[in-house]
Design brief:
single chain; alpha+beta; Thiol Ester Dehydrase, Chain A; 6-stranded antiparallel sheet; 4 helices
Length: 160
Amino acid sequence: MAVQRYIREKDPEINKYFSKCFVCGDANPYGLHLTNTYEDGRSHVEGRPGLAQMGLCTGGDNGLMHGGFSMMMLDEAFYYVCRAGLGLDVVTIFLNSRFKSPAILGHKLAAEAWLTKRDGKKIFMDGQIIDMDNDNKVVIEADAMYMSIDLDNFLKVSES
């Protein structure tokens, strides 16, 4: 089941907060428009980085994706474990990453994440980004902690 569809069907009002998200929003003309799925306890976020995500140019239009975009993909995958898998709104507390291999522009990349532990409001997860065009080679390994929040109260506080 597509995660974005899951969110809209569960609560159509929630989409007003995420439709312009740079990573997943379908209404952001500059966004990455990454596709999301969640099944069997894992979130899966796919994308094919292009010139706009270049960090290191290796010649012409060839290069490596900027590490910051890798973090966005992982953050999205971790979020969807919480939202689609647990039904929680969350904020990122920390995201640790270990870069294993370059993320090559034009290659199809997938960020995957899964729950490892839950302790009250704290949600602990592991994840990775793989290069689907390079035998599923691991590009990044990561772990993260997120905290569940009441989105309405969180937004009221952030607006003041």
